[in-house]
Amino acid sequence: MHSSANTHATENESKQKIALDYLRRILMAPVYDVAIESDLTPLNKLSAALGNNIFLKREDQQPVHSFKLRGAFNKLAQLPKEQSEHGVIAASAGNHAQGLALAASKLGIHATIVMPITTPDIKVDNVRRFGAEVRLVGKSFNEAQEASQKYAQAEHKTIIHPFDDPDIIAGQGTVAKELLQQLPSADVVFIPVGGGGLLAGMSVYLKQLCPHIKVIGVEAEDSACLAKAMQAGEPVDLTHVGLFADGVAVKRIGKHTFDVIKHFCDEVITVTTDEICAAIKDTFEHTRVIGEPAGALSLAGLKKYCHSSPGNENLVAILSGANMNFHSLRYVSERCELGEQKEAVLAVTIPEQKGSFRKFCQDLGGRVITEFNYRYSGRKKAHIFVGVRLSSGREELQQIISDLTTKGYEVSDFTDNELAKLHVRYMVGGQTHTPADERLFSFEFPEYPGALEKFLDTLGELFNISLFHYRNHGAAFGQVLAGMEVSHEQQEDFFDHLKTLGYQWQEETENPAYQAFLGKE
To answer: Which of 99, 327, 359, 441 could serve as a FRET partner for 265 with CA atoms 20 to 30 Å apart?
Structure first.
């Protein structure tokens, strides 16, 4: 017992030391030499709908349209003169690059940003416009990062980490300082999590001054490195990171950030891609600002929290950035209705005979059909891919499925099936001549010239490609679906070639959406 008490006392001392150190750093951070105090915008329509008082902290208003400027400027302001004279460097294709570029320009420090050659021109141009030197190296972020480390060593430059640095954390914490001045009565604050810099800085400040405020970190469910670290009790690597919310697509939470977060964050919520898309739409409808996926993350978490909240609370979400790739908007508009539970996606089997479509529409009871995909295949039964508008969420969906089943239809719910939403809806009708040895795989192709050629050189010359689908969504990686003819004898050789290819992949042969619409019967 005595040993346990000593351990607990030591942990409390460590926590208090961390808290006081960061409180001092945050209060002294000179971020307003370049950043602005962003607005706290009430979302009245959403507040009425969700039964709480909802506010949005508008970090999209910063000169670089992201909170990242705060941490970058604070870090550079603390640099010793010798390091400043040699310049700074970072590998980044996102908001850290722009924040660091502007901060360095304001302080008269030469900044070098290393970016993959796949980086969209708009991001490269923005970084140059803010005064930094850009070096395009490698086809992936990892290659750019390796190059930045070599440049730093050769040129005696200081590497500026995007999140895992006490001065960066303190700079981001100034968001919390403003928030408490604007809304001292806040009950719950929702903060997006990538590497954890913003959550660490804000949570330590909020808990020191207002311990009653609940602090909730929000992660994309396909890049939930904090949730995994919380379970393990220490930072651990994710095996795979999702692509959509690229601003928080971090494989491992920072060491410094986790040391703070584990003491001062109350809870972690994860949200789906569809829920993020719905939050982007909410943000636009209230502010006419299009938040980037990582920026809308916290509002998505707030909405999820409201499903089980007591109501009438003051809830704040941090709109952390609005550097949206324009070409991603099509994808967002396609998915936001699903995220709001205003649309369902179903696979329904109907008789292959005249009048079946009309009867099916009648059996839906006048509900609005948002999508209808079908291709004649010569069989007695037809599979249709149908979108249905919902007015009361998942309860209504279950009622629709029950009603259709009672009327003799075979129904599968694909509302949460990523393969169906990304690919199959555009490919309905491909069953007739499915090869006996076809296996289905989803790939992440890096968006650079030659990616498809590499795929064909590695696999296409040796194995027949029986299916292929790709749509550009404005991300650094493209989502590709490919069917390959692979006999039992070829399996070992095929998977060896997949390793050589080096792209992220996942087998989808048993996915029910594939089986229903594209696979062999």
So the answer is: 99
Structure tokens, 346: 């179903």
Give the pLDDT mean for 130-159.
90
Task: Name residue, tokens 């090869």.
Answer: 435
The 3-state DSSP class for residue 278 equals: helix
With tokens 């961390």, the residue in question is 18
End-to-end CA distance of the chain: 65
Q: Determine how many CB atoms are found less than 10 A away from the CB of residue 342.
A: 17
Catalytic-residue membership of 68:
yes
Q: Which two tokens stand for residue 80?
A: 């010793």
Q: Give every CB contact of residue 275 below 8 A, 6+ residues apart in sequence.
A: 300, 303, 304, 339
Q: Is 381 a catalytic residue?
A: no
CB 328: neighbour CB atoms within 10 A?
20
What are the two backbone dihedrals, phi and then psi, of residue 390, each rounded to the nearest 5 degrees?
-110, 145
Q: What is the pLDDT of residues 265-277, one digit of tens each?
A: 999 999 998 999 9
Query: Per the residue annotation, which of 38, 47, 66, 68 is the catalytic one?
Result: 68
Cα separation, 169 vs 74, whole angstroms: 9
Closest residue by Cα to residue 162 from 206, 126, 202, 194 = 194
pTM, whole model, 2 decimals? 0.81
- Three-class DSSP category at 206: helix
Q: Is residue 87 classed as helix, strand or coil in its secondary structure?
A: coil
Among the options 66, 203, 298, 320, which is catalytic? 320
Tell me the pLDDT band of 1, cut-offs 50, 70 and 90. very low
